[in-house]
Amino acid sequence: MKIILITPAAAHSRNGNRNTAQRWASFLRQLGHRVALQVSWDGSTADLMIALHARRSHDSIRRFAAAFPGRPLAVVLTGTDLYRDIRTDADAQESLRLATRLVVLQDMGLSELPQELRAKTSVIYQSAQPVAPQQPPRRHFEVCVIGHLREEKDPFRTALALRFLPPSSRIRVTHIGRALNAATAKRAHGLMQEFPRYRWLGDAPHWGVRRRLARAHLMVISSRMEGGANVVCEALAAGVPVIASRVSGNVGMLGEDYAGYYPVENEGALAQLLSRAEQEPEFYALLRQQCAARRTLVLPQAERSGLEKLVADCNKAQKCDN
């Protein structure tokens, strides 16, 4: 089968959508399909289109549906789709209607969809390759923040939490992620001056991010909205416990009863959890245990099986329509 895989993230991009598209292209080729990875559909024929992002890929979705009305079309919903755009944006809403199948990246995503769309929706957790355990630093408690400096990610919340930690704390925060404009870069540099415990490294290749993460004691994901974060998958695969903002996408990844949530945008509550993880071995062990229990969700073979089923479901829907 020839599959067009659309992602609005350009080839040089290091964001989550591009990583997902490249990984899915690899899995689909392993399953025997021919895959063309494109930012915008070039008009070439295909048996199936899979498009990441309902709003940003809408033009490709609309044109493919018009050109090949009988062929299957799967739309993968990102965090900004689920928790913002499908509620207000006409393009995103039309993409939902045109899709043969919808995909969400964690179980809680289903609850954001109208009841009539859930029957055509699959849940596919993203995956990450396991990482060999690394020895964390002995002299300090290493906290890793991974994410570009975007408003949706609430990128500076962990830095702001540092003001609530006592001078005796050994916590150090390392932040990896690209500044999207001069203002956010200036803010990051200002926070490094204000909080010597905080270090922003800027962008880094995937292998470098994984190496940093593998030797951290803890990872923080502070997003205001999240569809199913690649970085949580990476942390679970590396055996690194997570502290997360309590937003639907993080709960879908880590589970309702996870002990490491704080109220979104609340740096005081985040600081309390950081202190507990540093100072209370029982609490830290609980976070590790709960993350280990979720690790099977992000195994590569599970994601590949989900894609295999998605293609089969698309073919089945096409036959039913015919």
Structure commentary:
The chain is 43% helix and 16% strand. The strands form two sheets. Strands 2-1-3-4-5-6 form a six-stranded parallel sheet, with helices on both faces. The chain has a six-stranded parallel sheet with strand order 9-8-7-10-11-12, with helices on both faces. It contains 13 helices and twelve strands. Strand 3, helix 2 and strand 4 form a beta-alpha-beta unit. Helix 2 runs parallel beside helix 4 (90-98) and helix 3 packs across helix 4 (90-98). The chain folds into two domains: 2-126 and 299-321, Rossmann fold, CATH 3.40.50; 141-298, 3-Layer(aba) Sandwich (Rossmann fold), CATH 3.40.50. It has helices spanning 16-30, 58-67, 79-88, 90-98, 115-118, 157-161, 182-194, 206-214, 230-238, 248-254, 267-279, 281-293, 300-321; strands at residues 2-6, 34-38, 48-52, 73-76, 101-104, 121-123, 141-146, 171-176, 198-202, 218-221, 242-245, 261-262. It has 322 residues and is α/β, with parallel strands linked by helices.
